[in-house]
Amino acid sequence: MYDNDFRWFGPNASAILRPIGMTVVPMLDLSGRNNTRFGDSLLPEPQGKRIDLLDPFVVAQLGGIELVARGIVEGFLAGSHKSPFPGFSVEFTEDRPYQPGDELRYLDWKMLARSDRLFVKQFEEETNLRAMLVLDISASMDWSGAEHRLSKLSYAKQLVAAISLVLLRQRDATGLIAFDDEVRSVVRAGARSNHWWTLARVVQEITPGRGTAAEPALRQVTDLLRRRGLVVFVSDLLFDSRLVLRALHFLRHRGHQVIVLHIMDPAELNLEGPPEARFEDPESGTFVTARPRELRAVYEETVHNTIESWRSDCRSGGIHYHHVLTNTPFGQVLRRVAARRSQLA
Amino acid sequence: MIGFLQPLALLALVAAAIPALLHLLGRRLPPTVVFPAVKYLTATEREHSRRLRFRNLLLLILRTAVIVCIVLAASRPFVRTGTGVAHPPTAVALVVDNSLSSAAVLEGHRTLDTIIATARQVIARTATGDRLWLVLADGLPLRKTRLEAIEVLDSLEPSNMRLDLGTAARAAARAILEDPLPNGPVVVVSDLQATAFSPGESPATRVLLWAPPARPKNRWLDSVYSQPEIWTPTGSVVAVVGGSSERPVTLRLRAEGMELARALASPGDRVVLSGALRNPGWTVASVELDSDEMRADDIRKIALLRAEPVAVAMATEVGDFLVEAVSVLQQGGRATSGDRVSLGHFAQAGTSVVFPPSDPAMVGALNRTLNMRGVTWEFRDVRQGEWTLSDQSGIADGIEVYRRYGLSGTGDIFADIDGEPWLVRSGNVVLVASRLEPEWTRLPVSAFFVPFVDYLINRIAAEESWIVTASPGDVVELPATARTMDGTQSAPVTAVPGNHRIVAPLHTGVYFLHSASSDTVGALEVFSDVRESQLQVADENQVRTVFGDDARVLESDQLLSSLFSGEGRINVASLFLMLALAAAVGEFLVASSGGRKRTAV
Fold first, then answer.
1. What is the pTM for the complete model shown?
2. Interchain CB contact of B55 with A (< 8 Å)
C-alpha cells in the first residue's frame, strides 16, 4: 500500500532535501504490519535535521500535502514505541436493509426478532479510535503575516493531514469536516487503508471560504461521532466564542475528547504596520482605522487575554487547548498534542 | 502683566499650529491592511478608545505646549511687577530742584533738605545697572552713578539760579531717550512753583512729580532801583515789595555801613527810601526786608554812584530844541553849566558831542578837525529820505529820521539806520549823524527827546553810571567801555570778552565794571529772579499742561512704589524653558507609554 508513497520525490529527492540537512535513506513501514521494503523514504540522519522540526514554510516547499504530511509524521513517529493517540475498540458501525446476495451470517438476528425485518450488520475495520478533524477554512484563515510564512489555512491543512495520518497509522477511524460559514466538506471517519488518501485529497482541494460559523460544523460532528471519540478542532477562533464553546462543551459532555488547536500567525500577536492604517477584516469587510504604535501595547494585552480566556474556558470544560503559531514546527505541535492526550488517556 | 523684549519672535507662534496641522494632514485616508484579527483590534479600540482619545489630545496639547513655550522663551518674556524692586537696567532722570525757592524754611526745615531726602530715596530704589541722569538748578542733565549722585546731594545747597521745571524735564527726557537703556521715568522732586512751569512740548517719557506737603508764605523785594542813578549826594532808592501777606514789614536802606532810610511797607507797596551818601564814587547799598521763611529774597544789593552833575557847554547853532532839553536837565540836577561836555559843530578839547553843521560846506573843515583829534569817524555825504532809528538804549528806537550824514570810520556804534551808523563814538568824541531838529528827525518833538539827551550826555559822552541788572546765569551784555569786572574771591577780576556778553555770576550782589584805565564805568547788579520768590504751587492743570496728561504729583510712598512700575520686570524666559522641558518630558512619557508593555504568549 505504500509502494507509491514517495513517488513525488522521484530521482531528485536527494537534491531537494540536502540543502535543508535531509538525506534520503531506506526505511521500513513504521506501522509494524508491513515490513516489506517499499522504497525510499524520509528519515533524518542521526546528525541531520528532522523534517517535522523544520520551519513549516520550508517543509511546505518540499511537495504536495500528502508527501509533506508523511514526512512530518515519519519524523514525528521516529523513536515512538507506542501509539501516540491511544483509543478504544470499536467495530460495529450500522445496520442496513438486507439485500439479496448479502451473507446471511451478517444478519442482525436481534433486529429481526424485534422488528421482523432483515438487517445486515455493517462493520468497520477494527479501529482503536474514531476521530473527527474539524477544520476552519474561513477567509480569516487564508492569511499570512509574512512573505516566507505559511498562511494559517496552509499550516492547518498540513497539520490536519499529519494528524490524520498519525491517527490512521494506528488504525483509528478518522474523518474530516471543513467549514467556513457553513459546512463545506465532510469526510466520514474511516480507517481503511486508503482512507488517508481520501482525506489528503479533500484537504488538498480545500480552498478558502468566506465567513466563519463553527457551531453547525460541531453539531454535525455530534451526528458523525455517535460513540465517544476524538474531536480535533483546528481554527483561528476568530468568531463568537460563546456558541463555539457551548458546542465544544456539548461534545465533551457527550464523552468525546476534544482538542482545540488555536492557529495564529505571529503577526497577529503584535500589531505592526504603517503609522496609521485601515485594518480590514477579510471575512466581514469591516475595518478599523488605528495607529499601531498607539494600540500596540493594549492590543497585545487584548490578544493575550483572549488566548488566556480560551485556555481557561477550555480547561474548565476538559478541553485540550493548544495555541499554535504558524511558524511552529509541525513536529512540536504533534508532540504537544500527543503528549497531552497520552497524559489524559 | 507680561511683556516681551523681542516681540517679533512671537511670530514663530504660528509654528504652534504644526502639531495640529500634522494631525489634520495625518487624517487623510490611510492605507488599507488586510488583517484577520480585526476582532481583537476592535475590542482594543472599544476598550481603550476613550483613553486613546485622551492620550492623543494630551499629546497634541503637550507638543503644542512645547513649541509655544520655546517660542515664548525666545521672545524674552518678562513680567512687570508693581514694586519695581527688581527691574532691568533702566535710564532714570532725577530732577532735583535746588533753585532759590528751595531755601525756604518750613517748620525748621529747609525745603531743599526735604527734597534731598526724597531724592535719596529715589536713588536708593535704583539698581546698580540703572543709568541715572541728575538734573539740578542749572537744568543740565549729568550722568551720575548712584554714589556720585548721593555725593552731589550731600553737598547740595540752594542755588540762586531759577530752575524752569518744564525745560529741565524736557532736557532730562531727551537724555534718557538718547540713552541706550530702556527708558524709565523722569522724576521731579521740587517745590513745584507755579512760576517754574514754562509751557512747551510735553516730555516724551513718564514724569513723576513730588512736592513737599506744605509751603511757607513769603515776602520779597520785587524791584529795587536808584532814582536818580547818580546821587548828588542825595538820592533815593525805590523798592517794590512783593508777597501775599498783608502785614506791613520794615524796609531798610543801608549804605556806607549805616542805615540811610527805613520805612514800613506791605506787599504791593512802592516805597521810596531817600538818603545821602557821604563819599563820592561808587558804593554798594542794600535794601532789606524783615526776615521771613525765605531769607534769600529779603535783601537786595544795588550799586549807588555819588557824583557831580555833568557840566555842559553848548554852541549856539545846536538848535533850540537841544538847548531847551539841556536846560530841563540842568533844572533837574542832571546837568550843570560848564565845559566837561561840549555840544556843537566843532570838536572842542575834552569830551564833545558833535552834530553835523547846517551848511554842508562846513563838513570838510569839521572832518579835518576830527581827524586832528584822532577821531576815527568822519562825516560823508548828506542824505535825505525817511528812515527808522535803531537805538541800543531803546530810548530813541523807532524814531523817524529824515536827513542824515553818512558816517564812516571805526568805533563804538550806539544807534544805526539800516546798519549804517547814526550815533557813534571815538575816544571822547561822540558823533551824531543828524541834527537834533525837526527837519532832520522827529526826535526833538517826541517825548523821548529829554531822556535821549540825558542819555547822550551822561551815558555816552560822560560815560557815567552804566548799571546792568541780571539774574544768576543770565547772559548779559555789558557796556562797551567795560574791560574787566569784579569777580569772586578766588578770581577777583574777570575779563570781559570782546563781544561784551557774559554769563551773570551765580552769586547775587554787585559786580563793578572797569574800563581799560581801571576807572569804574558801571556795575552789574545780580539778584535772584523774583519768580523764585513766588512760592505758589502749580495746580494739576498746569502740571498736565506742561508734563502731559499722565504726569501726576505723588506722595513719597506713591512715588517710590510707582517709580519702576512697568519697568519692574522678572525675566520668565527660563520659566518657559522649564515648562517646555517639562512638556517635552511629558510628551515623551505619554508617547512611549503606548509601547512599553510586551505580552508573552
1. 0.46
2. yes
Which residue type, as a one-letter code, is found at position B271?
Answer: V
Per-position DSSP letters for B311-367, written without gaps between them: EEEE-GGG-HHHHHHHHHHHHTTSEEESSSEEEESS--SSEEEE---SSGGGHHHHH
For the cut 70, the answer to whether the pLDDT of residue B164 exceeds it is yes
* pLDDT tens figures, A37-75: 333 334 334 344 677 778 888 888 877 777 788 888 877
CA neighbor of B31 nearest in space, from A293, A275, A265, A283:
A275
Q: Which three cell numbers stand for residue B198?
A: 514754562
Q: CB A283 to CB B36 under 8 A?
A: yes
CB atoms within 10 A of CB B429: 24
Task: Write the pLDDT tens digit of every residue in A264-313.
Answer: 999 998 888 887 788 888 888 888 888 888 788 888 888 999 999 999 99
Using the Cβ of B372 and the Cβ atoms of chain A, whether some distance falls under 8 Å is answered with: no
**Which of B30, B44, B599 lies nearest to residue A295, judging by beta carbons?**
B44
How do the domains of chain B map onto residue ranges? 2-29+38-81+571-593, 91-216+535-567, 219-307+465-531, 310-450
Identical fold for domains B91-216+535-567 and B310-450, yes or no, is yes
Rounded CA-CA distance B375/B409 in Å is 9
| Model ipTM value | 0.71
Of A29-43, A292-306, B401-415, B450-464, the least confident: A29-43
Instruction: Determine the average pLDDT of the residues in A214-230.
Output: 82
Between residues 250 and 289 of chain A, which touch chain B (CB distance below 8 Å)?
A: 265, 268-269, 271, 273-284, 286-289
Q: Considering only the top CATH level, what class is B310-450?
A: alpha beta
Of the listed ranges A267-271, B264-268, B560-564, the least confidently predicted one is: B560-564
Tell me whether the omega of the peptide bond preceding residue B233 falls within 30 degrees of 0, making it cis.
yes
pLDDT band at A340 (very low <50, low <70, confident <90, very high): low
Which helix H or strand E contains A135, and what residues bound it? strand A130-136
Cβ neighbors of B142 (< 8 A, separation 6 or more) are: B133, B134, B135, B136
The pLDDT value given to residue A324: 92
Domain B219-307+465-531 in this protein, CATH class: mainly beta
Domain covering B91-216+535-567 assigned CATH 3.40.190.10 in the classification: no
For chain A, what are the domain ranges? 10-77, 91-126, 128-344
Mean pLDDT score, B20-37? 78
Q: Do A303 and B599 touch (CB under 8 A)?
A: yes
ω into B309 cis (within 30 of 0): no
pLDDT score of B438: 93
In whole angstroms, what is the distance from residue B329 CA to residue B349 CA? 23
CATH topology of domain A128-344: Rossmann fold (3.40.50)
Measured CA to CA, the distance from residue B67 to residue B539 in angstroms comes to 53
A153, A300, A306: best to mutate for the B interface, most B CBs within 10 A:
A300
User: Closest residue of A to B53, CA-based?
Assistant: A294
Contact B489, B516 (CB under 8 A): no
Which range (A6-20, A125-139, B585-599) has the least confidence?
A: A6-20
| Chain A residues touching residue B601 (CB < 8 angstroms) | 269, 303-304, 307, 323
Q: Report A:76-135 residues touching B (Cβ under 8 A).
A: none
